[in-house]
Write a structure and sequence with these properties.
322 residues, alpha+beta, Jelly Rolls, Arc Repressor Mutant, subunit A, five-stranded antiparallel beta sheet, 12 strands, globular
């Protein structure tokens, strides 16, 4: 079932506030400002397709920004791929500035700050893919985030055609169709990323970059330790907690939230495995460092929209567990 939100019947003085809330519900929370003094018009239709969120946005000129504050309170992490169906936009993420023209594909990562500036009325089709389900290495996602991909030939043209005809949702009772369509979108996107290949030359990573990578590796190695925390991570690397937090400011996620997210990802993957021994939910939670079953169930539902037991039998779990 799709959800349609429009400013058509909203009082003039409340349209922009309503629109900001509408985009937060349909896409992800962002700050939104209008670029003209004229009455604002906007419409968004959104729905679930398997594990994906598919939305069509039509609106007047605006600037939408996702900040570190929005990310800190996020309940889920997505990679977004959009098709500019009319109008133009400018995307800024990770220091990159990309002009998006009609027919182009644009890619951005909701776990790091970005802005989208639309100078005139526009329409776009956007698909939010759970970051955990995309299955691409971090370096490959970072390579395409904040970039425009021409949609005129190759896999770009194929993905544009697929996304523009993709239904916002499928009728109730068609979960198999929805899951297959969702898997096709993820596969096409991954193929497109691989097709683009590695950049000709990459800048030399900074010492801070190497330290961030070591911290991430340390977190992955110690996820099962209930005592893993920003304090223990900082101590292991002989730095202060304050400096550790400063290192991760550009990552768009706090160290504490990264630890929780990685633990949840491992729990979700294990709970979604098919044809394997079936441990209890509490056993899986404890294995990955969650000591409080009630807390685990609460944060799992906040991240995945389902309880751990509901997730175990869901179709979405198949995308992650493979």
């Amino acid at each position: 079932m799709s959800l349609v939100l429009t400013t058509a019947s909203v009082p003039e003085g409340e349209k922009l506030s309503y629109w900001r809330d509408a985009l937060g519900r349909a896409l992800v929370p962002m700050a939104v400002t209008a670029r003209a003094d004229a009455p604002f018009r906007g419409r968004v239709a959104t729905g679930r397709l398997g594990g994906l969120r598919v939305s069509t946005v039509e609106a007047d000129a605006q600037r939408a920004s996702r900040t570190a504050a929005h990310i800190a309170h996020a309940r889920a992490d997505y990679v977004a791929v959009g098709v500019q169906t009319s109008g133009t936009a400018t995307l800024v993420q990770d220091g990159r500035r990309a002009l998006v023209e009609e027919g182009d594909l644009v890619v951005y990562d909701t776990t790091r700050p970005y802005s989208l500036d639309y100078p005139g009325r526009f329409s776009t089709r956007v698909v939010h893919m759970p970051r955990r389900a995309v299955g691409l290495p971090e370096e490959e996602l970072r390579r395409v985030a904040g970039t425009t991909i021409p949609g005129r030939d190759g896999f770009g043209a194929l993905l544009v055609s697929f996304l523009t005809t993709l239904p916002v949702s499928v009728p109730p009772g068609s979960p198999v169709v929805a899951t297959r369509l969702a898997a096709s979108v993820v596969d096409l996107f991954a193929t497109l990323v691989h097709e683009r290949g590695a950049p000709a030359a990459a800048p030399e990573p900074s010492p801070q970059h190497h330290l961030v990578q070591r911290v991430r590796g340390h977190i992955d190695e110690h996820l099962t330790d209930p005592a893993l925390s920003p304090q223990s991570v900082a101590a292991a690397h002989h730095i202060s907690v304050r400096y550790l937090h400063r290192l991760f400011e550009e990552e768009g996620v706090t160290v504490g939230r990264l630890i929780q997210r990685r633990r949840l990802e491992e729990c979700a993957r294990e709970l979604g495995r098919q044809n394997a021994p079936v441990p209890t939910v509490s056993a899986v939670a404890q294995r990955w460092g969650f000591t409080n079953p009630a807390h685990f169930s609460r944060v799992f539902r906040a991240a995945y929209g389902l309880s751990p037991r509901e997730w175990r039998g869901s179709r979405d779990a198949l995308l992650l567990a493979g």
